[in-house]
Specification:
The protein is α+β, with helices and mostly antiparallel strands. About 45% of the residues lie in helices and about 20% in strands. The chain is globular and about 55 Å long. Bound molecules: zinc ion.
């Protein structure tokens, strides 16, 4: 495994242990050239998946890209990395077991929205607002009231979303 810091071709595994309830192996690695430390995960891949983008272009499914977009939505939110990994693994398993090898990106987006709904309400609104391309204050209100049913403190936790909704109303 190439070092992500200095691109040295050889890094050493310091330890390996099961992660995510034994569906993954977590390896801590160290680079002998720069001393950089990083972690890799080994997982079963049941089948190769292809994503069909909105414009019709096809790209190979990339778990890391999915994880990164989920992490962007969860930035500065109090959710442990392990729970995020489990959510992403759950999405991948749903995709792999769907029987389809070509999956529209919209289907993945909806799975992420569903996953974030249970994980963190603020991240859920962030992702849904970008993903569904909210244009109207009513779109925000709909989602806010949807999650407010489960978590009454949500509106107080989201001044940005409320601010945008208010600003949009003034137009
Ligand atoms: Zn290095």
């Amino acid at each position: 495994m190439r070092c992500p810091y200095c691109a040295s071709p050889d890094t050493q595994v310091k330890d390996s242990r099961p992660a995510e309830e034994n569906v993954a192996i977590r390896r801590r690695r160290i680079c002998p050239d720069c001393g950089g430390r990083f972690t890799t995960f080994e997982r079963v891949q049941l089948r190769e998946l292809t994503i069909i983008k909105r414009a019709g272009r096809k790209v190979p499914f990339d778990r890391d890209k999915l994880l990164r977009s989920v992490e962007v939505a969860l930035r500065k939110r109090p959710v442990e990395a392990d729970r995020i990994e489990r959510m992403v693994s759950g999405i991948v398993r749903q995709l792999e077991s769907s029987g389809e090898t070509e999956i529209p990106s919209s289907a993945i987006g909806e799975l992420v929205i569903e996953g974030l709904k249970g994980l963190d309400p603020v991240a859920y609104v962030r992702f849904a607002s970008v993903y569904r391309d909210f244009r109207e204050a009513a779109d925000f209100q709909e989602v806010l009231s949807e999650i407010a049913r489960d978590t009454p403190e949500v509106e107080a936790a989201m001044p940005v979303a409320n601010g945008q909704a208010t600003a949009a109303k003034r137009h």
